[in-house]
Design a protein that fits this description.
The complex is a heterodimer of chains A (293) and B (608). Chain A is α/β, with parallel strands linked by helices. Chain A is 30% helix and 30% strand. Chain A is built from ten helices and 14 strands. In chain A, strands 6-7-8-3-9-10 form a six-stranded mixed beta sheet, with helices on both faces. In chain A, strands 2-1-4-5 form a four-stranded antiparallel beta sheet, with helices on one face. In chain A, helix 6 links the parallel strand 7 and strand 8. Chain A is elongated and about 70 Å long. Chain B has 608 residues and is of the alpha+beta class. Chain B is 36% helix and 32% strand. Chain B is built from ten helices and 32 strands. Chain B has a four-stranded antiparallel beta sheet, with no helix packed on it. The chains are: A alpha/beta (293), B alpha+beta (608). At the A-B interface, helix 2 and helix 3 of A face helix 1 and helix 5 of B.
Chain lengths: 293, 608
């Protein structure tokens, strides 16, 4: 049995001449919360579509629980709960009809789970799906996905359209609870603050390529901000690599990607100050416009 | 299977408003009988017509809408991912949707047609077919058409909605397939294989339907939520599968048309009055109603396949036996083909002369041809230069007879629509002067002598009449002797006349001079219900005798010079237009060439 819930190997996706995903390789350990980050158009959703077996990559393979997702999609979906980026359920169906429809397809359907979730989300079961708000649609899809008792939950931008309360509830209650139960969660999101406390591992895509994939703790340990009171900055002497350098008051600010205390000691003479970075800071440094990729 | 039914049920639930619409339409038809202008006695018919009309229109419209949206709309709206993110096989998605659509179509048709069925299904069907027995067939045809409409709409819907460059490929493939179908149908049309074409069209239609269903499954399985790839996969499967089907059909058609002369069951035989070539045509073994035609040399067995032949008319040999002409049918206008027969292997050659000719005749030397197209356009062509030498308008007639009297003069016998005294009007067309002249009328069917100057009439006449072939004027008549009955008569090549008379229990061949003077009688063995004379050369006649009660044929060989029957051949019948020394004859075993002088037979087609 593979130790990974998902293994993406050298996957390339093209839309005509546009390269959407460029030879991406990543692995999602079982039981982890894995966040795939990237700006709009970075290729996240294309990769997710391939991961769900909905689109065949031009090259490369994607496995879930050791099995090829393209060839074993239907069987694998018994183990995967999915909340897609677009609320794709038929708009004419009522929530109740959706629940009934899904309940007939899954072997491990948990009716109590969906009943409780829908109650908690305060979604009317007689409402047509198309008549629900964006956030409610996501909540219904999440309730349906969780009722399948999944081993892997794939969430493609699940907070899109959710209000602050619902977003917080999603991260603090749902994903945290799933993580505690050992369920693998693979998600793409722009809500970096929300995921920062939950993600075990993050990957960042930029222009279709994977520019970073690492455990979040290790990532935060090696990414630091160093501020200098005055110019010029002599970072080269310290062997620290920079992801971003910009003006800061009369001095300068650099984001380094391989911080260590020994190297920093060499900069003491420049009155440099070091501080930790948030995931959002790291993301901007890596995927932002001034990033030195 | 379970997931297929779940999908089907979901689709039906989603489209339940269609059932409501169908019920509304059904109720709407109940108003029709009470509309102003509908008479009390016509109310039932009005209901039936309205109900069935609405049912057909609604079902066809629904088929088009369902077909174009079943996959195409969900793909373009990005909603197919809903199914693909569930543990549902792609085949279940496709077949579930397909089942739902077909159930929807059938049920809606039944709902709207219900008033017609209740009012009387016999009337309902009689409205269209005049036959109440075909009720199931009518319903079957409507639903089959709706299913075909649905499948075609699905294909077109996918193609159009994908907005992919594959559409260009589709157009090319469609053009190629269309051309291929025409190329496959054409040789069968030329072979008059209407039943076979109908059968093949049905098979191709069913194959196409199955292919589209399979292509849809393939499209959903391979294209999944990718709109452009979905189109590509559908196109690839569809055209490749249709291509394979057409290849198989092409192989079958190639087999059908590659028929040999021995596989022909001849029903048309025409032999040149000189030389040894004949045209043979008929249906073929194991090929349904496909007809094949051959030029066949009775002397040495050489044969040339003709692409097609319009049997019974339009085939002609020149009097010298060195040329043949025939029309090859095609939609709109047939084309005249000719072949020189005095070469080792005759080659059919198109002349470019087209028309729907009802008559044609070659000049004695085969250099000119005269044709008549309805309603009576006589044209004369030079075959060497393929130019028109002249034309004239004849009065329209049910049919025409005639021939070149000289290369410059064509004589035409135009049948009279309602014969009283005259059965034919006689015309002559002077090719040089380009003038048409009515020269007389003929009170019966004329059998001309070799140079076209005289003719004999015998049918339904008390006496054999020898008439001037140009004016129809009676020259002499020869009454049967001993109260006998004149049964048939013909000019022999040497100008003498041979007739058959029945005289109280016996029959005989009378040989007369060109002016009707008695030469010799030859008694025939036994009696027959019908007689037919053909000339085998050297003074020999083959007299075909149909047995009483149409039990069969036998042929007596009569030596008119000696006045004796030299041979009796049972179960043998010379073809209508055949001349010696080798005669083409029908036997129970097939067509044979038969030498009346020696009795030798050679099998041409059939079983040895």
């Amino acid at each position: 049995m593979s130790e990974y819930a998902i293994e993406v190997s050298n996957v390339t996706v093209r839309y005509g001449r546009v390269l959407a995903v460029d030879r991406v390789t990543l692995a999602v350990p079982r039981g982890s919360v894995y966040a795939l980050l990237g700006r709009n158009g970075a290729g996240k959703s294309s990769l997710v579509r391939c991961l769900l077996g909905q689109r065949q990559p031009e090259s490369g393979t994607i496995r879930a629980f050791g099995e090829d997702v393209w060839t074993h999609r239907a069987a694998l979906m018994q183990r995967m709960g999915v909340v897609s980026e677009e609320a794709d359920a038929p708009p004419e169906m009522t929530v109740d009809q959706l629940v009934r429809f899904c309940s007939e397809l899954y072997a491990r359907w948990d009716q109590n789970e969906v009943d409780e979730r829908l109650k908690r989300f305060e979604v009317s079961r007689s409402s047509r799906f198309g008549a629900l708000s964006k956030g409610q649609k996501k909540q219904v899809l999440l309730a349906l996905a969780l009722a399948t008792s999944p081993d892997l939950l794939v969430l493609d931008d699940p907070t899109l359209g959710l209000d602050v309360v619902a977003r917080k509830s999603l991260f603090d209650e749902v994903i945290a609870e799933l993580a505690d139960r050992g369920i693998t969660v693979f998600l793409t999101t722009h809500d970096l603050a929300g995921i920062e406390t939950l993600a075990d591992r993050v990957a960042i895509m930029k222009n279709g390529a994977l520019v970073l994939e690492e455990d979040l703790d290790a990532l935060k340990a090696r990414f630091r901000r160093i501020r200098f009171a005055a110019k010029p900055v002599a970072l080269q002497e310290s062997a620290l690599r920079t992801a971003l350098v910009r003006n800061w008051g009369n001095g300068a600010e650099a984001i380094v990607t391989n911080y260590d205390d020994v190297a920093f000691e060499r900069l003491r003479s420049t009155n440099a100050e070091v501080s930790a970075l948030s995931l959002e800071d790291i993301f901007i440094a890596v995927a932002g416009e001034g990033a030195q990729s | 299977m379970k997931s297929t039914l779940v999908i089907a049920r979901r689709e039906l639930t989603e489209k339940r408003f269609v059932f409501v619409s169908a019920i509304a339409f059904a109720l709407l038809t109940l108003i029709v009988p009470f509309l102003p202008g509908v008479h009390a006695g016509e109310r039932r018919n009005a209901l039936v017509i309205a109900s069935l009309g609405w049912a057909v229109i609604f079902t066809m419209g629904l088929a088009a809408i369902l077909g174009s949206t079943i996959i195409g709309r969900e793909l373009s709206d990005g909603r197919l991912s809903f199914y693909f993110s569930k543990p549902v096989p792609a085949n279940s998605i496709w077949f579930g949707k397909l089942i739902a659509a077909l159930v929807l179509l059938g049920t809606c048709f039944a709902i709207i047609a219900l008033p017609a069925i209740v009012a009387g299904s016999e009337e309902a069907v009689r409205t269209w077919t005049n036959s109440p027995r075909d009720a199931r067939a009518v319903v079957g045809i409507v639903l089959a058409l709706a299913a075909a409409f649905f499948l075609l709409s699905h294909v077109i819907g996918t193609f159009v909605r994908s907005r992919s460059a594959w559409l260009v490929f589709d157009f090319i493939a469609l053009a190629v397939c269309g051309t291929a179908v025409w190329l496959l149908a054409r040789p069968l049309l030329l072979g008059f294989a209407i039943d076979l074409i109908r059968t093949l069209a049905l098979i191709l239609g069913l194959y196409t339907a199955v292919t589209i269903i399979a292509a849809g499954a393939w499209q959903v399985a391979r294209g999944r939520t990718d709109r452009k790839r979905s189109h590509m996969e559908l196109s690839r499967f569809l055209w490749m599968s249709l291509g394979c089907g057409l290849l198989v059909m092409a192989a079958f058609v190639a087999w059908v048309v590659s028929v040999s002369l021995t596989q022909v069951k001849p029903d048309f035989v025409q032999q040149a009055s000189n030389g040894s070539w004949a045209m043979i045509a008929g249906k073929t073994a194991h090929r349904n109603d496909y007809r094949a035609a051959f030029l066949y040399n009775v002397a040495d067995g050489r044969s040339v396949r003709l692409s097609s032949l319009q049997p019974w008319w339009g085939t002609t040999f020149s009097a010298d036996g060195k040329s043949a002409a025939w029309f090859v049918p095609s939609p709109g206008a047939s084309e005249l083909y000719v072949a020189r027969l005095d070469v080792p292997m005759p080659t059919p050659t198109p002349t470019g002369i087209t028309g729907v000719a009802s008559f044609d005749a070659l000049s004695d030397d085969g250099s000119r041809i005269a044709t008549i197209e309805r309603p009576g356009l006589l044209s004369v062509y030079d075959l060497e230069t393929k130019t028109s030498l002249g034309s004239a308008r004849l009065p329209d007639a049910p049919y025409w007879l005639g021939d070149f009297i000289t290369p410059e003069l064509v004589r035409i016998y135009g049948a009279v629509e309602k014969p009283r005294t005259a059965y034919f009007d006689i015309f002559e067309y002077d090719v040089r002067k380009k003038t048409l002249q009515r020269t007389g009328e003929m009170p019966g069917f004329p059998r001309l002598n070799h140079d076209g100057s005289l003719c004999v009439l015998y049918s339904r006449r008390p006496a054999l009449e020898i008439r001037d072939a140009r004016s129809g004027a009676l020259l002499t008549s020869v009454a049967p002797q001993q109260n006998g009955q004149l049964l048939t008569a013909t000019f022999l090549r040497d100008g003498r006349i041979a007739s058959v008379e029945d005289r109280k229990g016996s029959s005989l061949v009378r040989l007369l001079s060109p002016n009707g003077a008695e030469i010799r009688d030859t008694p025939l063995p036994g009696r027959a219900s019908r007689y037919f004379i053909t000339e085998a050369g050297s003074g020999l006649l083959a007299v075909v005798m149909r047995e009483p009660n149409q039990a069969g044929f036998r042929t007596a060989v009569v030596d008119v010079n000696r006045g004796v029957v030299t041979r009796i051949e049972p179960a043998l019948r010379a073809a209508d237009r055949t001349f010696g020394p080798w005669l083409l004859c029908f036997t129970p075993h097939g067509l044979v060439s038969w030498n009346p002088a020696t009795g030798e037979k050679r099998l041409v087609t059939g079983q040895s």
